[in-house]
Write a structure and sequence with these properties.
InterPro entries: FAD/NAD-bd_sf, NadB
Radius of gyration: 22 Å
Pfam families: FAD_oxidored (PF12831)
Oligomer: single chain
Structural class: alpha+beta
Organism: Promicromonospora thailandica
Protein name: FAD dependent oxidoreductase
Shape: globular
GO molecular function, one term: L-aspartate oxidase activity
Helix content: 25-40%
Mean pLDDT: 97
């Protein structure tokens, strides 16, 4: 075997939220880490994919790790120190800079990039963490049931670098290391026979994968900022999915995810609302009545007059969900073509809004909508990366099923408790329309735990899942895929790798041996990881 270019203790492939959390946790315990990222920005769904954090209602008090809380407070600190906030905004302990209804912390993605870079900076200065930028994994070597090395290729110049590590964390957005390392995995819907889930189909549907989306940000100012007519506009302008009941995808109308009834949303740019009155709590209000406010990431009225010419509105709505085809286990050219088509869908939605969308005053079109490429860090104004809701998922030691978390199944018993819990999370089982033609599944879950067994492949001994590739099903991925859970998963994986290096134990023995598990969990708790929910939390 050719000698690797780099040798390290822990290789973390993918610098999304899970990957960064894994790198920080491993480095804090003294491990040497190589961290890699394909896109210009680190941070994954929070930054390069431009999705504000989807969180549970208790996030300001409990239910996330200490490191994740530090990220959130770091973002707020930037706004307080560097932005001309109004006195009312600056004094707000739970500052929501965008005053979006989807999250208690809507913000510009670049701010999060800076905070994440700052969190990594001390370790990069000492060489404890080495960040390989603009690379993606292309191959791997194995030695029996161990991953020996991973080769990464520059997406800019095409050069390869091979990294050998004692432990590898797959923190990619789609579980890219699983096929490369021969690690067993599943895609799409499992069958009811396999999982026992009431919402699963009779037969497995491996090609039935949740929609991906390419997000973008707009402002609304004077002038005509209409973009060139997108190449695929004629197709997308008339496309009417079955789940839309004959309505066109490019419209203000879409199914209510919870009831499936078609509902018409409103769209009023810069409505002059009171941003300090926004109560972003999905358990009380889905918040998508006025799409401008739903994922707003900058509220101009929280800042000095004239600082922002307009609010900044993030478009991540049903109308840009791309479900004509998935990008898992398809040839590279097919993957690129489908993501390019998703980008055409997003541009078509913008063009429709600028030229044809009904306005509240009875007119049509909002030519004042303008893309903000500078906010997205991209040339075309779209997010740098597609937002992938669903990944390849490991065949895990423990697989979390609908029967473990669904309120309809569990009721007041609460979610399954795990002796090997490494964290907690909470979100509704939220599945978007999928490539098999299915509509939304959006039903209550119960506050749940993250079992260590869900991070461990059944066979591969030194590969750990660190993102949406953990042992969930197509259904439970819908509540385990959000920002704080991804961070917690990555943090637990990075900490476990360093723990095993320090103790000579193996991940599987830590999970299966009570004494070893207790030692590892005690270390997690000491770093601010919550293993169980307090009493009194409720489903929504």
């Amino acid at each position: 075997m050719t000698s690797p270019d780099l040798q390290t203790d822990v290789l973390v492939v993918g610098a999304g939220l899970g990957g960064i959390a894994a790198a920080l946790a491993a480095a804090d315990r003294g491990a040497r880490v190589v961290l890699t990222e394909e896109h210009p920005w680190i941070g994954g769904q929070l930054t390069s994919q431009a999705v504000p954090p989807d969180e549970h209602p208790w996030v300001e008090r409990f239910g996330v790790t200490a490191r994740y809380r530090a990220l959130r407070e770091g973002i707020r600190d930037v706004y307080r120190r560097r932005y001309p906030l109004t006195d009312g905004a600056r004094d707000r302990a739970e500052l929501n800079p965008g005053a979006g209804w989807v999250s208690k912390l809507c913000h510009e993605p670049r701010v999060a990039v800076g905070v994440l870079e700052e969190m990594l900076a001390p370790y990069r200065s000492t060489g404890r963490i080495r960040l390989l930028e603009r690379v993606r994994p292309v191959s791997a070597t194995t030695d029996g049931d161990r991953v020996a090395s991973v080769t990464l290729r520059s997406v800019v110049g095409g050069e390869d670098v091979t990294v050998a590590a004692a432990y590898t964390v797959d923190a990619t957005e789609t579980g890219e290391l699983l096929p490369l390392t021969g690690t067993e995995y599943v895609t799409g819907f499992e069958s009811r026979h396999e999982t026992g889930e009431p919402s699963a189909p009779d037969e497995a549907q491996p090609d039935n994968v949740q929609a991906l989306s390419v997000c973008f940000v707009v402002e609304h100012t004077d002038g005509d900022h209409t973009i060139d007519r997108p190449e695929r506009y004629d197709f997308w302008r008339t496309y009417a999915p079955a789940a839309w009941g004959g309505e066109q995808l490019l419209s203000w109308t879409a199914p209510n995810p919870r009831t499936l009834a078609l509902e018409k949303r409103s769209f009023t740019p810069n409505p002059g609302d009171d941003p300090l009155a926004v109560d972003a709590d999905q358990s009380k209000n889905a918040g998508d009545g006025n799409l401008w406010l739903f994922r707003r990431i900058a509220a101009r009225d929280l800042h000095a007059p004239g600082f922002y010419a307009s609010d900044l509105c993030l478009v991540n709505w049903p109308s840009i969900d791309y479900f004509l085809g998935h990008v898992l286990d398809v040839p590279r050219d097919v993957e690129e073509a489908r993501i390019a088509d998703a980008r055409q869908l997003s541009l078509s939605m913008l063009y429709w809004m600028q030229t044809e969308a009904p306005r509240p005053d009875g007119g049509t079109g909002f030519p004042g909508l303008r893309l903000r490429p500078d906010v997205m860090g991209s040339a075309d104004g779209l997010a740098q990366a597609a937002y992938h809701r669903e990944s390849r998922r490991i065949r895990a030691v423990t697989t979390v099923t609908e029967n473990d978390v669904s309120y309809a199944v569990r009721g007041d018993r609460g979610a399954t408790r795990y002796a090997d819990s490494v964290g907690v999370g909470m979100y509704r089982i939220d599945l978007h329309p999928s490539t098999g033609g299915d509509t939304y599944i959006d039903v209550p879950s119960t506050p749940f735990e993250i079992p260590l067994g869900a991070l461990l492949p059944r066979r591969t001994t030194n590969l750990l899942a660190g993102n949406k590739n953990i042992g969930t099903t197509h259904i439970t991925n819908g509540c385990y895929r959000l920002h704080p859970v991804e961070w917690n998963v990555g943090e637990a994986a990075g900490h476990l790798a360093a723990h095993c290096l320090a103790t000579g134990r193996t991940p599987h023995s830590v999970q299966s041996e009570p004494d070893q598990l207790a030692d590892y969990q005690a270390e997690l708790v000491a770093t601010g990881v919550e293993l169980h929910w307090p009493d009194g939390v409720y489903p929504y």
